[in-house]
Each structure stands twice: as C-alpha cells, then as structure tokens.
Amino acid sequence: MKYTVSIEIALPREKVVQLIADPATMPQWLRGLVVHEPTSGVHGEVGTVSRVVLNMGGQEFEATETITRRDPQDLHDIPAGTVVHFEREIVGKGMWSATRDRFTEAGPETTHWEQESEYRFSGLMMRLVGALMPGSFRKQSLVHMQDFKAFAEHGTDVRDA
Fold this sequence. Notes:
Blueprint: E1 2-9, H1 13-21, H2 26-29, E2 33-40, E3 49-56, E4 59-71, E5 84-92, E6 95-107, E7 110-121, H3 124-132, H4 134-154
Antiparallel strand pairs: 1-7, 2-3, 3-4, 4-5, 5-6, 6-7
C-alpha cells in the first residue's frame, strides 16, 4: 500500500525542519508517542537505529526505526530552493514501512511538507488490517502532520488534548 499526503505550514522551511528534527519536541506533536530512543547512532543521523513505542487506541506498538536519508545533513542555513529530505524505515511485528518526507519552500514564510508512505504487511492479521483499513493509515499520517502544524505554528501540545 502506498499513499501521499501533504500540508502547508506557515513557517519558513528552515524553522520547520529544525523543529521536526529535534527529538525534544517529538512528544509535543507526535500523538501516542511513548518512547523514541536511539539504540545505535545519533538521533536523526543516517544509519541511526531507534526503538519506537506508540500507543494507538490503547494498544502499544513497538518497532525499530532506521534513518535512511537526511539531506542536507546540516539543517542550518539551507540554500534557497533546496528540497530537504528525511527518510526512514520502520519495522514492527507484521509490518514494514518506508516514509519519505520532503520539505520545500512554498513562499518566504511558508513550507510545503509532502510525505510519501509505503506499507507492507506479513501475517494474516496484519494483512487483513492493511486490506480492510487502508484509509486509516493515510488518516493517521495526516493527523500527525496536522498535529505538527498546530505545534509549530501555535505551540499546541498534543499531550494537553
């Protein structure tokens, strides 16, 4: 299953990518995050492997995240017109996913965030979930993006919701 979602954020691209790359801000906008801790490497750097635990609907889901691309590496003073890429693979019980985030300047004070996601499922239960509820994955991705937008633009913290 593949899909793409996007959103506009009323902040300069450099500010958006710095916020999204900062592990300290993740609990404020990533709804359901319980744990996100590197097990090898440095948070956000290519090749870093992290343990991720999310609480989704009262169920905890544990996975391993590997950063596969971050371009450019230095998120300060990004040249105008440069597309910023963050890519990661997530592997959990019965599931593999790849997420490719692209951040572009939509204007001097606006960022366009496009996220392409791909999921593969194994095991009968996960294949059924993927087949019967494909829209829920897209909807969840969009909720995370909207939560980040509210956090970045207004300081809204999902833990207060």
